[in-house]
Write a structure and sequence with these properties.
The structure is a homodimer.
Chain A lengths: L1 E3 L1 H4 L6 H12 L6 E5 L3 H13 L4 E5 L10 H9 L3 E3 L1 H14 L11 H6 L1 E3 L3 E3 L8 E6 L2 E6 L3 H20 L3 E10 L3 H14 L3 E8 L5 E10 L2 H21 L3 E4 L2
Chain lengths: 263, 263
């Protein structure tokens, strides 16, 4: 994933798009390996794309930089990274016009081709627009050697709408029949450093379960243990998580800790 | 900057550390060029470090993965990336003991060298600990060819405390006498796409000013314009921002928009 915007690099805003997208992709059983955040510069965005190609990523999702302003550079960076010229795309223009009429509830046939609208309709050769019913900037879907690329606008409502309607099926198709199960328990009365070797023991014993401890401070000090498992068989994934929870809880209780379900 | 943790890649938590750190570094006039988020894997963390070396970063700050549990891999990854073996560091052990006595307000001279404590005290050769008065995992300060590296724990209170007390002066020293000024205005009554060419015009005319527009939806649609300028002369940076604000406001009003200060 590549999130784009100077405002992210100066701490002006929280990267809520990153959390929303990583959560949504994980729910679809996708495995997000890396998130890179860069500023509004063609070279920086293009390098981040190029590095993901070099790592042979199956899927790249970018977020931000598709709008009308001078510092929206994602289409230019995509063009550079996949070495395909920007071309005015008639379908994109049509979709932008449709969205404009839909949003402003107007039958006005005049749709002025301002420079900023033309900019948003110039896609890298081979790119297909992803219709944005809630804003003017279309998303883009593109393939480059073995990698699928989806570019989404950074305005949260637009990003989420395009993702739910058009990116969700692309990811489902890519992931295939994979299931992910997770669960958490609350642990008190034992230190994280004493739980660590018990987690190791359970993860060694039960394959395909990932357990992570998160120390929490509110209302008082406690430990969340988060279990997850991924499998092409839903029952196996669920059984793995249940078994790991049971085994680890038992070990923790034997070591003087207390385990409670998190509802 | 490298933020580390599987919980960030599955959308379990918001990357608040990224916002806090990028904001703090920007306040010190540092320029954050890229943030990479990777999971709790030695190879992924080491690759992200290696790529930052290849880009000749002046400064790398990592956050997360310094704790006692099996999935805390940052020290191992640092060791791999800078090609320096992990060695038990006596100073680190002493600081860990000091922190433990400080936090638990105890004069107990027994300080058990559990495996998890020994793990946190094994630094890459040449690394120096950064004292953590509010937790057990020390930070690490390290140099590798032209790059300074600081590794901080991911627990927010620990990260912030070490940063304020010990990383702040390192960054001040690296940045030198540079000043950063910023300001914002609220714009209504004109579309972002019509403001875009006006921003271009002002940025072309006034050097060293960066202007970015942020569309907002609450309580109603409006546009925040954010101005910033960096200079080795504080008065020049301030004058640049003031001049850009004045020029752009005038242009916007001439185009039918309304400009208000943001207090």
């Amino acid at each position: 994933m590549i999130t784009i915007g100077n405002e992210l690099l100066i701490g002006k805003i929280l990267n809520t798009n990153m959390q929303w997208l990583t959560y949504a992709i994980t729910e679809l059983c996708g495995n997000v390996v890396r998130v890179t955040t860069v500023g509004d510069y063609v070279d920086d965005i293009a390098s981040a794309l190029q590095e993901a190609f070099d790592r042979k990523a199956d899927f790249i999702i970018t977020c931000g930089g598709l709008g009308p302003t001078f510092d929206d550079k994602t289409l230019e960076a995509l063009s550079k990274a996949v070495n395909a010229p920007l071309e005015l795309d008639a379908t994109t223009l049509r979709l932008m016009k449709k969205s404009c009429r839909f949003r402003h509830n107007s039958d006005d046939e005049r749709y002025e081709l301002t420079p900023s609208r033309l900019k948003m309709a110039r896609l890298p050769h081979g790119g297909k627009p992803l219709y944005n019913p809630v804003g003017s900037a279309s998303g883009v879907h593109l393939k480059y050697s073995g990698t699928k690329i989806v570019a989404l606008p950074g305005v949260p409502m637009e990003m989420k709408t395009i993702f739910k309607e058009q990116v969700d099926p692309i990811i489902r198709d890519l992931v295939g029949d994979i299931f992910r199960t997770e669960g958490s328990v609350k642990v008190t009365g034992i230190r994280e450093s004493n739980v660590a070797p018990l987690i190791d023991e359970v993860m060694n014993e039960i394959q395909n379960v990932y357990i992570k401890s998160h120390p929490k401070r509110r209302p008082e000090l406690w430990l969340e243990l988060h279990f997850s498992s991924v499998s092409d068989n839903k029952e196996i994934a669920e059984a793995n998580v249940k078994k790991a929870m049971r085994c680890l809880s038992k070990l923790i209780i034997n070591h003087g800790g207390k385990v409670e379900p998190i509802i």
